[in-house]
Design brief:
seven-stranded mixed beta sheet, two-stranded antiparallel sheet, 363 residues, 40% helix, Hypothetical Oxidoreductase Yiak, Chain: A, domain 1, Ribosomal Protein S8, Chain: A, domain 1, alpha+beta
């Protein structure tokens, strides 16, 4: 793995996105989201995977580089916005900011972002609300690539759910996960690194899932199993959660939904819960007590500790801010080629390459 300073990598990502057509403020916002993912060890949604996709989508017109956001309708704390095919990762910080402002007045507010595109790591947006002392909930309904329980064709997106709440000392309880067995980008990562996928993550033509670790196949990139994997185990839970996300993001707002949603298309739902300002310290203390109660759980045999959601990512962020973001050699070569193509300075490595486990990352 090749180590690159996170700030330099952010500048490079922003410069590439600007060169590809994004306005400066959108490029900066998207780059910040990409680097937050890489810092937290979520390479599936960082520079390694998504930057090349964003550049490709800008080139082929899948993304509108200069969207004109339009409020479709508004009622009380609920608002629906047409994002004009804009890059979700670039425009969602603005959506979060406005939703936070409305929640501060009413206690809760939500915004549906219709006609959207990829929003990156959803925890980024939930954390933006948590940084304001509020609770952030972010959902995304994507194009179909998940096969329903007992099915054999994709009908739902990976439909991730992210929730973040503030704790004391600048910490956050943060959960972010797809409702599929594996995120689609994890398949892309497996293709690049040779990593194996978990049992029950891929649905074959017959409707059966893989019965053991297997190498990812491009043929099944759009044929993922719901969270739970096998139909006779718990896939109905992931299936149901995916339907819930589809309802809240798309169906309730008549966004056209599935199957009309194009590949790469997405609808987002951002909800912010804001207790009165005077009550927020009490809420933050309560969230902290919950996390401490969880981490005080006696660990299972062979395990050193129990973590609260988001703790591992926060610890990884501390390490990577100090020691650099590890990039797979293939990723670094691609970034170097993209920089040459767009006339952007190549980010210099911090040190000699290291083994993946030494950088805190793995398959």
């Amino acid at each position: 793995m090749i180590l690159v300073a996170h700030e330099k990598l952010r500048q490079t990502a922003a410069s590439l996105l600007t060169a590809a057509g994004l306005p400066d403020h959108h490029a900066e916002a998207a780059a910040a989201g990409l680097i937050r993912a890489d810092l937290r060890g979520v390479e599936t949604h960082g520079v390694s995977n998504m930057l090349r996709n964003y550049l490709q989508w800008l080139e082929d017109g899948s993304l509108n580089p200069r969207p004109k956001l339009r409020t479709a309708w508004s009622l009380g704390g609920l608002e629906a916005v047409d994002s004009d095919r804009g890059l979700g990762l670039a425009i969602m910080p603005e959506i979060v900011e406005k939703t936070v402002a409305r929640a501060a007045e009413s206690g809760i507010a939500a915004t549906a972002v219709l006609n959207g595109r990829h929003a990156g790591m959803l925890a980024h947006h939930a954390l933006l609300a948590a940084e304001k002392g509020m609770i952030g909930i972010c959902l995304t309904a994507t194009s179909a690539r998940v096969v329903p329980t007992w099915g054999r064709e994709p009908r739902l997106g990976t439909n991730p759910i992210a929730i973040a709440a503030p704790m004391t000392d600048g910490r956050y309880l943060a959960f972010d996960a797809a409702t599929s067995m594996v995120a689609g980008n994890r398949v892309t990562t497996a293709l690049r690194t040779g990593a194996k996928l978990p049992r029950g993550s891929i649905v074959y033509d017959t409707g059966a899932t893989n019965d053991g670790p297997t190498e990812a196949s491009r043929d099944y990139l759009r044929r993922l199993a719901p969270l739970g994997g096998l139909a006779d185990e718990a896939s109905h839970k992931g299936y149901g959660l995916a339907v819930l996300v589809e309802l809240l993001c798309g169906t309730l707002f008549d966004d056209g939904g599935l199957p009309e949603r194009p590949p790469g298309g997405a609808t987002h739902f951002m909800c912010v819960i804001a207790p009165p300002a005077g009550e927020r310290p009490s809420m933050i203390a309560s969230v902290t007590r919950l996390a401490e109660y969880l981490t005080a759980t006696p660990p299972a045999e062979g395990r050193e500790r129990v973590l609260y959601p988001g703790q591992l990512e926060a610890e990884e962020e501390v390490r990577r801010r100090a020691g650099g973001v590890p990039l797979h050699p293939e990723v670094y070569r691609w970034i170097s080629g993209a920089c040459e193509k767009y006339g952007v300075e190549v980010p210099a490595p911090l040190a000699a390459p290291v083994q993946a486990h030494e950088a805190g990352v793995g398959p």
